[in-house]
UniProtKB/TrEMBL annotation:
Pathway: Cofactor biosynthesis; adenosylcobalamin biosynthesis; adenosylcobalamin from cob(II)yrinate a,c-diamide: step 7/7. It comes from the Bacteria. Keywords: Cell membrane, Cobalamin biosynthesis, Magnesium, Membrane, Transferase, Transmembrane, Transmembrane helix. The chain crosses the membrane at residues 40-60, 110-129, 149-175, 196-229, 249-269. It comes from Niastella vici. This is Adenosylcobinamide-GDP ribazoletransferase. Its EC number is 2.7.8.26. It catalyses: alpha-ribazole + adenosylcob(III)inamide-GDP = adenosylcob(III)alamin + GMP + H(+); alpha-ribazole 5'-phosphate + adenosylcob(III)inamide-GDP = adenosylcob(III)alamin 5'-phosphate + GMP + H(+). Belongs to the CobS family. Its cofactor is Mg(2+).
Length: 270
């Protein structure tokens, strides 16, 4: 049990800036095993992101609440995935060969493509999150329990953060890691592929939220998987596989696709 706790806290230390117990360390072996807990870390990020939404939405406004939720998520992860997405935008936007793409991706400086990509993805995330509360049936006859009123919104948030973090784990299983290992922040995670057992463990927290929603929402996972593997296929075409930044981009795009699919299902299927 203590070993599993160390592996879990290693995942938390890798994906977030949250404090962890002193017995957790940067062991490469534990980091390799920690991928199975990535979706569970998504639960924590979602919980931290959802709380300021509830507070600011009650006392100020919905727009401020959504902005506060996004900022809370960024502060929790240290913009870990957003940074990867921005680097991917710079690299694939400005590079035309594998060597050039990988070189740009390792550059710590942010270029025009990265800035535009960051603005675009945060803007899209804001608009999509703004639509979600409108499809919460409980708002028509709200109770005194704010968590109950927004349970569908909160469940969607949890599902989005966990499912989107499951996608990089799947890509790691079926695609190869590329780039210079010594220059990558994902080196320990990428040295071996996740096992089938690890994938099953990772899938559990990603699927649990759907037990409290209509089964039709499971359709969103199909679109997210398609989007994630389409990106992985694109990365393989240009650089032969994925890098740590590519995984961050996959997480961000998967999260947006999930929100979009949930809105479409809410509006046209349920």
């Amino acid at each position: 049990m203590k070993k599993e706790l160390r592996i879990f806290f290693t995942a938390m230390m890798f994906l977030t800036r949250l404090p962890v117990p002193r017995f957790a360390d940067h062991s490469p072996d534990y980091l390799e095993r920690s991928v199975k807990y990535f979706p569970l870390i998504g639960w924590i990020v979602a919980a931290i992101s959802g709380f300021p939404f509830l507070v600011f939405n009650k006392y100020i406004s919905e727009d401020i609440a959504i902005a506060a939720s996004i900022i809370a998520g960024i502060l929790t992860t240290g913009a870990f995935h957003e940074d990867g997405f921005a680097d991917v935008c710079d690299a694939f936007g400005g590079g035309w060969t594998k060597e050039k793409i990988l070189l740009i991706m390792k550059d710590s400086r942010l270029g025009s493509y990265g800035v535009i990509g960051m603005i675009a993805i945060l803007f899209c995330k804001f608009l999509l999150l703004k639509e979600l509360p409108k499809f919460t049936p409980d708002l028509q006859n709200p109770s005194l329990n704010i968590f109950y009123n927004y349970r569908y919104f909160l469940l969607t948030l949890i599902a989005a953060h966990s499912v989107s973090r499951l996608m990089p784990v799947l890509v790691m299983r079926f695609y190869d890691y590329v780039s210079d290992p010594d220059g990558s922040k994902s080196k320990p995670v990428a040295t071996r592929k996740p096992t089938i057992g690890a994938l099953l463990v990772a899938a559990i927290p990603a699927l649990v939220p759907f037990a409290f929603m209509s089964w039709q929402f499971l359709l969103a996972i199909i679109t997210v998987v398609y989007a994630a593997f389409s990106l992985a296929k694109y990365f393989k075409k240009w650089i032969g596989g994925y890098t740590g930044d590519c995984l961050g981009a996959i997480q961000q795009v998967s999260e947006l696709c999930f929100y979009l699919c949930m809105i479409i299902i809410w509006r046209y299927i349920i």
